[in-house]
Amino acid sequence: MQRTKNTTRHNSAPVRVVLLGSGYTSIHAYRSLVRRLRPRIGKDLHITLITRDTHHAFHGWTGDALAGYIPVEHTLTPLECIFPLAQRMQGMVEGVDLQHQQVQVKTESGIQQVPYDHLVIGLGSSDPFDRIQGLAEHGFCLKSIHELHRLRTHLIARLQAAQNTQDTSERERLLHFTLIGGGYAGVEIAAALRGFFEQQVTHHPILQTCVPRIELIHAHEELLPELLARYPRLQRYALQQLQDLHIQVIPGTRIQKVKAGCCVTSTGATLPAGMVIATAGISLGVLKGTEMLPRDERKRLRANDHMQVQGHGNLWTAGDIANIRRPFQQGPCPTNALWAIMGGMHAGDNLARAIQRKPLRPFWFPGLGQSASFGPGRAIAELCTLQFTGQVAFLMRLGFFLMFMPHLPYACLVLKDWLRLRQRLKPSTTLKTA
Ligand SMILES: Cc1cc2nc3c(=O)[nH]c(=O)nc-3n(C[C@H](O)[C@H](O)[C@H](O)COP(=O)(O)OP(=O)(O)OC[C@H]3O[C@@H](n4cnc5c(N)ncnc54)[C@H](O)[C@@H]3O)c2cc1C
What we know:
Blueprint: E1 15-20, H1 24-37, E2 45-51, E3 55-57, H2 62-67, E4 76-78, H3 79-82, E5 87-90, E6 92-97, E7 102-107, E8 110-115, E9 118-121, H4 135-138, E10 139-140, H5 145-164, H6 168-174, E11 176-180, H7 184-200, E12 213-217, H8 225-228, H9 232-244, E13 247-250, E14 255-259, E15 262-265, E16 270-272, E17 275-278, E18 301-302, E19 315-317, E20 322-323, H10 337-355, E21 369-373, E22 379-383, E23 386-389, H11 390-404, H12 408-424
Parallel strand pairs: 1-2, 1-9, 2-5, 9-19, 10-17, 11-12, 11-17, 12-13, 18-20
Antiparallel strand pairs: 3-4, 6-7, 7-8, 14-15, 15-16, 21-22, 22-23
Helix pairs in contact: 1-10, 5-6, 11-12
This protein binds flavin-adenine dinucleotide.
The site of flavin-adenine dinucleotide has 27 residues, from helix 1, strand 6 and helix 10.
Keywords: FAD, Flavoprotein, Membrane, Oxidoreductase, Transmembrane, Transmembrane helix
Domain FAD/NAD(P)-binding: 16-325
Transmembrane segments: 394-415
């Protein structure tokens, strides 16, 4: 059953579109709406954005910002630059009343009810705090920008402490880093950590004599398993990079619990751990009032090819929170920024078509490629099944990321950072590696 009472609420009443979250899904849904319906916005079409954020964080640069290649602030774009024609409300979405078509938002001035005719659910995912016990207390994740800041501050404090202590075993403990998760984010963050130490050598001479120990724990037998079947050359290159960067890979080990100084695996074994950083996938919550919406086993909202939540013509979704059939292939669309961008774009297009009472179009995006960086000039990239490594792959990734940054002046800032870095970076001869 499709519920579409929204657009026919009252002939002269403006259509109210509410976007939840300010990630890639909402940005690109908004852009599609503006592209198709610009003259109507503010007249008979109102767009409201509800999000807890003031800025959009470009997650693709997380590793580069962690390493210090680009300032964390340059990965952030103020929302007023991205959503100029939307009314913005900052607050925490607490629930949705599907029957009365209202969103409950907790703002500084209390709980507010925001009515909608069409709702775009782009709330994304969260770090896996619920799947890995103790992670919130004893580890770091990188989804939020505050975490990234906290992590960098903590790393510097650790280096300082290692610099100051005379106790060798304490120094070893301080320079021990344990990463959980060997997907794209995991390998990038492991390499970025190495990059961070290279950037810090001059400030912390201890790094000229002591080797930071970085280990990467992975649940599967192979790192980057998604590459293995179709792109083994890229996987081999990635492994070689990690080896060159002296990152110790511990495969076939699933971490279930993090404690002070150790991790507990799914078999109950205890592994000594250093400072823990987790990039071990995502978790999803269920908003109050949406419990009855169809979901998959990972709690992702099941949507049809038009990007509508199954059975709900005025609920649109895409990105990490959604399970949408991948066009031309088996299984759902992957959970990454590219698919959130393309899904959000399509959701916005179809939403505009619904408002215009035009037929909706099925999602058709076949995929484009994937990439991971191991530091300046070292990357892997797959574009339409063609495989690239090294400098070429690095430049391709850079070009794509700049193109997908949500606001051109911020993309220019990041480009400048990279150009400056090229002059600043000399091959690191000082960081002790063995
Ligand atoms: C460290 C890291 C590195 C990554 N690197 C890459 C990469 O290199 N390439 C790539 O393709 N993908 C990468 N990803 C994945 C990519 O970031 C996600 O797939 C993408 O952000 C999903 O987009 P989305 O629109 O679904 O959600 P998001 O972009 O996460 O946006 C969700 C929005 O909803 C808001 N929100 C959530 N809950 C609430 C609430 N209750 N109330 C108010 N607001 C709320 C959030 O604050 C946010 O604004 C990375 C992810 C991480 C964490």
